[in-house]
Amino acid sequence: MPYKDAEQKREWERLHRKERRARRRELRREEAAREEPRPEAQSLIGGASSLLLPLAAGGALAAYNPKLAIGAGGLTLAVAIFYKKDWSWWIAGMLLLVVGVFIQWNLKTEGE
Prior knowledge:
Helices cover 74% and strands 0% of the residues. By secondary structure, the chain is mainly alpha-helical. It folds into two domains: 1-40; 49-111.
């Protein structure tokens, strides 16, 4: 709207007010949809310090039945992948898997 005459500019704005308002409303809706807050998934584990309890439980499970520990480790890794959990879930799953496989391997070598 490069008007040199201020009166012509005011007249143009008066005539196109509805269109300008509709366009601004549409832009606000688009911006609100883009910036809509997405709620974070709630964490089941508070922090890295609370990683010890699941590991202790996994160690006891591995001593009782290594196959269950392997399954629990795999399930923990699957949850970490699916829900995009932090590194502590990955470490817990890997440790459960490794301890379960190690104990299972020891039981097989002792049996032979």
